[in-house]
Design goal:
- The complex is a heterodimer of chains A (about 850) and B (about 260).
- Helices cover about 55% and strands about 15% of the residues of chain A.
- In chain A, a hairpin with a 5-residue loop joins strand 16 (about 555-570) and strand 17.
- Chain B is α/β, with parallel strands linked by helices.
- Helices cover about 35% and strands about 25% of the residues of chain B.
- Chain B is globular, with a radius of gyration of 18 Å.
- The chains are: A alpha+beta (about 850), B alpha/beta (about 260).
- Chains A and B meet through helix 13, helix 21 and helix 24 of A and helix 2 and helix 3 of B.
Amino acid sequence: MLKATLRSFLAHKGRLLLSALAVVLSVAFVAGSLIFSDTVTRTFDRLFASTAADVTVEPKDDLNSNVPSGAVQTVPATLAGRVARVDGVASAHADVSVENITVVDRDHKSVGPTTGAPTIATDWYVTHRSPVKLTSGHAPQGAGQAMLDADTADKKHVKIGDTLTVMAQPGSFDVEIVGIATFTTTNPGAALVFLDPAVAATELLGSAGKATSISVDAAPGVSDAVLKDRVSAALGSGPYDVKTADEQAKSSAASLGGFLDVIKYVMLGFAGIAVLVGVFLIVNTFSMLIAQRTRELGLLRALGADRRQVRRSVLTEAVLLGLVGSTLGLAAGIGLAAGLIKLMSAFGMNLKTTEMVVGWGTPVAAYVVGVGVTFVAAYLPARRAATVSPMAALADADIAGVGRPLKVRAIVGAVVGALGAAALLGCVTASKTASAASFLGLGVVLTLIATVIAGPLLVRPVIRVLGGAFPALFGPVGRMSQRNALRNPRRTGATAAALMVGLALVGGMSVASASMSKSFDEQIDRTLGADFVIQNANFTPFSQEVTDAVRATDGVGLVVRQRFAPLAVRLPDGKRVETTASGYGDRLDDVAHVTYAQGDSAAALADGAIGMDVDFAKDHGVKLGSVLPVEFPGDRTTSLKVGALTDQDASEGFGMEGGLFLGMGTVEKYVPDGQDSALYVNAAPGTGPEQLRPRLEKTLDAYPQVQVRDQADYKKLVHDQIAVLLYLVYALLGLAIVIAVLGVVNTLALSVVERTREIGLLRAIGLGRRQLRRMIRLESVVIAVFGAVLGLALGLVWGVCIQQVLALQGMKALAVPWGTIVAVVIGSAVVGVVAALLPALRASRMNVLAAIAHE
Amino acid sequence: MSTAALSTPDGIAARAHGLTKAYGSGETTVLALDSVDVSIARGRFTAVMGPSGSGKSTLMHCLAGLDTVSAGQVWLGDTEITGLKERELTRLRRDRIGFMFQSFNLIPTLNAAENITLPMDIAGRKPDEKWLDQVVDALGLRERLGHRPSQLSGGQQQRVACARALVSRPELIFADEPTGNLDSRAGLEVLAFLRQAVDELGQTVVMVTHDPSAAAHSDLVLFLADGRIVDEMERPTADAVLERMKRFDVGRASVADGAPEED
C-alpha cells in the first residue's frame, strides 16, 4: 500500500505542485519571521549586554516616559561622586544622553535618520563598553566641536571640518565635526553626535550639574547584584532606579521590542493569511485528485484494500506533500529573513546576514505548520476517498462529486451564519467599546466560516447573475464558460473562497479607514479654528527657538502652544489613571472650537485647574469643581481643580484616556524644560493667511523638524497616517491574491485535464484555439469575480460593524470607498484572466485526436 | 485503387491522392496509410471497413482535417486541405464538415438544442430555422430539445449528434463508429437516419465501422487492410461484407499489426 501511495504521489506531482507552493509560502513566512526576530533579538541582546554598565543609576521611571513631552528626566551630576564613594565601585561617570534634539547641516537639512529612529547627542566618554570607536579625526574638545557616527556621516555626506547646528532644549549651538566614530557593534539605526563631556551637560541639559544617568563600574570581585544593592542602600529612597547590567540590557531590549514585535506580528499575519488561504487550496486539490481517481480507488477497494487503508494512503500523500513543502518553505524562509535583514540595513539598522540565528524552534514550527496544515486540509478529502465503493471501479465514472446534495452545508452554513449575524448585531448595538469589539471579532470569524461553508450554495444564484450577460456577449463560448463555472459548485465555491477571504479583509478595512478619515475630516472641520498648525508628522516636540521664530514672523497674530504632559490622576472612585494630558496656551478658543458640557476654556486652563471629558468624568465620579490629586514625573505632585467638562467626539484618541487638558502655566510648572509639540497660528488682523503662509515657510526653512499646515494639509497628514494601516492591509491582500491565483490556476488546470475529451470534441467540430482560450478565461474571470463579490459583500458588512465600534470612540462618520470597491472587482477580473493564462494555453495546445481518444 | 467509375468532377465530395500517414521514424516506422488514392462520391453513403489496425480511422481523420498527413494530398471539394494552417482547418471543420463520434459526442453543459446549433453558434451564423425544424423532426428530437445530455439515452444522444452534423448542411459528414456504443435497436435507428440523410436530404456520409450489418446500410463499402484500400463493394449486404471480412482474418497472421488504432 505504501508503494502504491508513493507511486501515486510521484505520478501526481505536477498536480500537487501548486498545493506545495501554498505550503511553501505559509511556512516561508512563519520561518522567516522567526529567524528574523531571533536574529534581531540576539543581535540587540548582545549590543545591550556589551554596552550596559555594571550598574546604572537612572531617574525614576514612574510615569509613562514614552510621552513626547520634550522634557528630559535628570539626576544631579554630583550623584556620580556619591556613588563613587560606595564600597566596591571602581568608577562612576555622569552620563549625558538626550534624544530631544534636531541636528541640521548648513543647508538646513536634517542629518537625523528619516526612519523615525532617534538622533542622540551624548558625551564622548570612552570605556570598554562603547559601541563605537574613533576612526578618523580627534575627540571633541570644548564647545563648538563634535563627532558624528560614520554611518550618518556617510549617508548625509558630512565630512570632518563641516559645521552642523544642534538644536537642543536649552538652545541651538554650532559645532564643527572634528572626528568620525564607527560602530564596532550593530548600529541600531540612530544618528549619534558626541560632545566634549566638559560641555555636554551645559549644552544639552542647560546646566553642568545635571546628568541623564550614572554608569558605575564594579571593582574586581564585586558582582553586579551586590554592587546594585550597595548603591541602592547608599542612595536611600531618592527618586532613582538602580539597575544591573542585565536589567539594563533587558529594559533597553524591551523598549526596542515594541518596534520589533510589530515586524514579527506583521510577518505572522502574513503567515496566517498564507495558511488560511493555503488550506482552501489544499482541500480543493485533494478533493479534485480524489474525484479524478475514483475508479482507481474503487479498484483498490475491489482488490481488498479496506477503508482505513485508502484513507491512510491519501493522508500519507498529504504528509509527504507537507514534508516537501515545509522543507522548501524553510529554505525560502531563510531567504526571506535574509531579505528582511538587508531591508533593515537600508533603513540604517546594520544587521549582518552572516549572524543569522536559526533556533531549534524554527524548523519545528516550520514542519508543524507545513505538515499540520496539509494533514488537516487533506483529512476531509481523505475520508471521502475512503467512502468510494468498490463498484466505482466498474462504473463508468462520471465527474464525481457534481451532484452530491449540499443540504448539510446549507444547514450548517445557515446556523453558523445566523450566529455570526447575531454577534455582529450585538456589536452594532453594544454601547461599550470592549464588548462591541469582542462581538465584532466573534461575528467576523463566524460569518467568514458561514460564507466559506455556504459558498457552494451561492455559486448558482450569483454566477447566474454575474455570467448572465455572457451568452449575449460572447455567444456559445460565453454560455459554456458560465455553465462550466456552475458545473461543480463545490469546486467553484472552494476556489473562490481563497480570494474571498483576502477581499473580505480588504473590504472591511477600507470601509473602516475611509470612515476614520471622514470622521477625522469632520472633526478637524469642527474643532480646528486656527489658520495654520505648525508641528511635525510624528507629533514629536521641537525646540523653543521654533516657537520664538514663528512668533517673530511678520504677520503672525496669535500663537497658541500645545505640549504633552505625562501624568497620573487619582480619581474619586479610587482609580489611579496614568495618561497624557495636553497643555494649551491662553486664548485656546481663538484656534479651536471646543464644546463644553460645563465650564469653559478659561476655567479649564486657569492656574491649578484641569479639564476633562464629560463621559470619563461621569464614569469615575468626577464633578465640576472636584479637586483631584495629580502626579507628574519626578515625584512632583499637586492637586488640580476640575474647571470644565468637554463634550467632544473622539476626545480619547491616541491613548490619551480621559481627554485631560490644562493650562500651559501648570504644565511648565510641573513638567519643566519641556518642549512644544504644536503651534496653532492665526494671521494678524490685516494679513491674509495666503500672505502669511509663504512667510511662515520661509521662517521654518531653518527648522526641518517642523512643517506648516493649513486645514487641508492637516487632513492630509491624518489621511497619510491612516493610509499606513491600509498599506499593510493591501500587502496582506497581495499575498492572499497570489495564493488565490494559485488556487484558480490549480482548479482550472485540473478541470482542463478532466474535460480533455470535451475539449477535443469542441475542437473537432470547429472551436478555434482562440475561442477555447477565451472560454477558459471567462470561466476563470467569473470564478474570480464571484469570490470578489462574496468577499466584498462580507467585507462591507464587517466594515459597517467596525465603524460602529469606532463610533463608540467618537468616529461617527461612515464612508464606503466605492472607488476602491469597484477597483477591486475589476482587479479580480484581471486576476481571473491572469490565472487562466497557463491552463488556457495548455488546453489550446492539446492534440485534438489524442483528446478525443482520451479515457 | 480508385472509384473512378463514380467520379465526375462535381460529383466528388472529397478525395485523396497518394495519402500516406506514418508513425515513428527510422526502423520503427509504421505506415498507417500507405499511398492511398480515394474519392468520396457526393450524395452517397460510403462505409469504410477493415480489421483493427487497418488504418480506417486514420483515413477518416486525415480526410476530415483532424490529422496531418505524412505525404500525399487531400481535397475537400475543390479545396486542398493538406497544407492548410491550423486556423483554416478549424474553420473548414466548423463550416464544411459534420462529425459523429462513437461516444462522448455532446457537451454536457449544453442542452440538446444548444448542442445541435453549437458549430453554427461558434461560427456566429444563424441556423436556417426551416432546415433545423426539418432535421429535428426527422430525428424525432422535438420533445428533447431542452434536455441535457445526461437526461438522454445513448440512442437519443447519438441522434442529437446526428442532428448537429446535419444542421449546418456540411459538404461531408464523418461518422466514426456511430453505433459502437449503442444496443442494436438504437443502432439501427441511427443508421436509418444516416441513410435518410443521404436519400432524402442529399447529404454525403462517410462512416467508419467494423460492424458488417452497419456497413450494409451504405451504398459503397471500402475495405482497408494494412493502410491500403484493398477492395470495394457496391450495394453491400451484411452477409457479403462478413464474408469479405473473414478473408482478412486468414491473411492477418503474417501481417505486422502495430499501427496505432482507433479503439
